């Protein structure tokens, strides 16, 4: 009877400590996000470090982002890679995209296009528009994969439908040149205009050329 009571107390006490720790970690992440949104990056990085070291994947991603973009900490690509990898392995889509970017650009790790594609795709399949664009570029240029214009256009379209200006412009180029899709100047104009309205300079130039040449729109 005494042994049973002792075991029960140990289990209850242990669960209480764990729950308290989890609450503290969650609060640190929340405080970090509040500080980050307010542009107080030093405080944000400090909060994220506490939660990240305890295993919180959102904090791990944010800490990696802070190191990558020099927000509140000195730029350190190795630390950016380290923390984004921890969060990416837990399934965090934005961290997977950041990790892919590290591999693609050789930041904090040896450049590896195959690994970049792996993580771009993991993130893209979770709906991350930037990763879909990155994956499309890999297929378009043969980085880490066999070049495939059809797959490239497919991923550009996924990102474009989500409103990513760079993908809208790139999809417009695909339609203009007939790469991965059937050539269609009307659709090229449509996507150039979408991107141009988001103030993407390249799209604005191409949209102007469409009006000048009367391609996909009445000449004006």
Could you walk me through the main structural features you see in this protein, from its secondary elements to its overall organization?
The chain is mostly helical and 220 residues long. Helices cover 74% and strands 0% of the residues. It has eleven helices and no strands. α3 (57-69) runs antiparallel to α4, α5 (93-105) packs antiparallel against α6 and α8 crosses α9 (165-177).
Shape, principal axes of CA atoms = elongated
Proportion of helical residues? over 70%
Q: What proportion of the residues form beta strands (DSSP E)?
A: under 5%
Succession of helices and strands: HHHHHHHHHHH
Low-confidence parts lasting 5 or more residues at pLDDT below 50?
Answer: none
Question: Which features characterize this protein?
Answer:
220 residues, mainly alpha
């Amino acid at each position: 009877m005494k042994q049973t009571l002792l075991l029960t107390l140990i289990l209850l006490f242990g669960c209480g400590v764990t729950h308290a720790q989890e609450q503290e970690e969650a609060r640190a992440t929340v405080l970090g996000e509040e500080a980050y949104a307010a542009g107080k990056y030093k405080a944000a990085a400090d909060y994220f470090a506490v939660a990240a070291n305890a295993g919180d994947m959102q904090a791990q991603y944010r800490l990696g982002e802070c190191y990558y973009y020099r927000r509140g900490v000195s730029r350190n690509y190795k630390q950016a890679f380290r923390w984004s990898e921890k969060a990416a392995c837990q399934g965090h889509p934005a961290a997977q995209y950041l990790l892919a970017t590290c591999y693609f650009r050789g930041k904090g790790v040896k450049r590896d296009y195959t690994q970049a594609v792996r993580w771009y795709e993991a993130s893209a399949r979770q709906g991350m528009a930037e990763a879909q664009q990155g994956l499309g570029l890999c297929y378009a240029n043969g980085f880490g994969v066999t070049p495939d214009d059809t797959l490239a256009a497919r991923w550009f379209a996924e990102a474009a439908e989500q409103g990513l200006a760079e993908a809208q412009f790139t999809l417009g180029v695909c339609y203009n040149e007939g790469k991965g899709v059937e050539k269609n100047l009307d659709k090229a104009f449509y996507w150039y205009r979408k991107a141009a309205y988001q103030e993407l300079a390249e799209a604005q130039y191409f949209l102007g050329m469409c009006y000048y040449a009367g391609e996909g729109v009445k000449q004006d």
